[in-house]
Amino acid sequence: MTTAGEPTGAARRREVVVNGRRVRVVDLHAHCAVPEATALLGQPSPLPALLLTNVALRLRAMDEQGIDVAALSINPYWYAADRDVAAALIRVQNEALAAWCASAPDRFVALASVALQHPDLAVQQLEAAVKRLGLRGALVGGSVNGEELADARFHPFWAKAEELGALIFIHPQGTAELASRLRGNGMLENVIGNPLETTIALSHLIFEGTLDRFPGLKILAAHGGGYLPSYAARSDAGCVTFPGRCTPIQKQPTAYLRQLYFDSLVFTPEALRHLIAEVGAGQVVVGTDYPYPWTATAVDHVLATPGLSDAQRIAILGGTAAQLLRLEG
């Protein structure tokens, strides 16, 4: 985190209003970086450090967009690290996230980092982050070194997350096993590979019974949940056609979508309207993907989507996120 080089001419803070009511807007998909932690693995940031670490630049962007609170998180780049290195890296990173939040407690909260490749360590890290540092949950990748999040060895982590009431944000890291199919023009490893990994991860959590085993989990899926919400009805049909392949789940696959949460990163009003129709307005929250310029108009995206009631817009813009993050006020 740095406050050096504060920009001049800061933007006036946009106040978002729905039918005369001031709404607190919460961004649940906001990237940052801790250079001291990445240095432990010798991995430079994929974006200019200034965008990821400068508080003043971030606050200016939030003010321009109408974002009141950002939930900061870091995509896992440490899943190949051994236990000692991972422990040191996560300690530095989570303490830095807590310091960032303390610098502007009315504007920032954070989701912790955990070394999920070492599940018992991840359990300890999550508990320390929530209870000692005041972080609100954790961000995890869509898989861990090729292992699915639904694998039984991650059950202790899910049990601890459920116990703590911690929000777990699943952010994809791509589908490396498809690299040869996704190479070439179009940045397919990102625009196809990322939502595909989320789709696979969520589907395994459903079909392997993880969401039945831990029904109190609060899971947020990046990028509108990938392709799952748009084609989940095929899973229902598959269970009718091949019922023996759908044990041990207790409900129709699409019913589990109402246990999950999804960010609004689906790019068009029609796509957002469709996502809401499939999962419910109460399961959708704002995500900007800062500092990537995917949705610099995330607030207007919600306001412009047709057919929503005032209550639904308020919930999407910040009401649901405030509950998930246990925000005061």
Give the tally of β-strands: 12
CATH class category label: Alpha Beta
Order of helices and strands: EEEHHHEHEHEEEHEHHHHEHHEHEHH
**Coarse shape:** globular
The total number of structural domains is 1
Termini separation comes to 26 Å
Rg computed from alpha carbons, rounded to a whole number of angstroms: 19 Å
Please sum up the structure shown.
This protein has 329 residues and is an alpha/beta fold.
Question: Can you walk through the features of this model?
Answer:
The protein has 329 residues and is of the alpha/beta class. It has a single domain, classed as Alpha-Beta Barrel (TIM Barrel). Helix content is 42%, strand content 13%. The chain has 15 helices and twelve strands. It has a five-stranded parallel beta sheet with strand order 6-9-10-11-12. Helix 5 packs parallel to helix 6. The chain is globular, with a radius of gyration of 19 Å. The N terminus is likely disordered.
Any descriptors?
single chain, 329 residues, alpha/beta, TIM Barrel, 12 strands, 42% helix, disordered N terminus
